[in-house]
């Protein structure tokens, strides 16, 4: 079984929802620019949108796209931390608990998962191929 190129209808639906999320977020960032974030957010959402859409349309790397999207699970906690700060609750127990949960979630979803993902890519590197030259150049330019 080719892990790098396998995909199902359920995978495409999940990717389509993710593309919709990034597109909606991208539009909101532009609409309220720069209140919701600067150019780094625009670049992050643009890259994410292109990568997830490419994975959805080509069927390539969907497993790895899922792994990267899991890292977005830390975002609600980070957003909650901002709300607690704006509400003047920086010294509250909720703010402290939120910080601990973010730290633990960050370790799992952003550090350990990426170590595993790169190890998995290494194990299945024989299945990874560079797409045609045009797509490869576009990916490099992004």
UniProtKB/TrEMBL annotation:
Keywords associated with the record: Membrane, Transmembrane, Transmembrane helix
Ranges where the TLC domain occurs: 1-142
InterPro entries: TLC-dom (IPR006634), TLCD (IPR050846)
SMART domains given in the database record: TLC (SM00724)
Membrane topology value: Multi-pass membrane protein
Gene Ontology CC, one term: membrane
Pfam (any one): TRAM_LAG1_CLN8
Subcellular location: Membrane
The keyword tRNA processing belongs to this UniProt entry's keyword annotation: no
Name of the protein described by the UniProt record: Putative TRAM/LAG1/CLN8 domain-containing protein
The species this protein was found in: Medicago truncatula (Barrel medic)
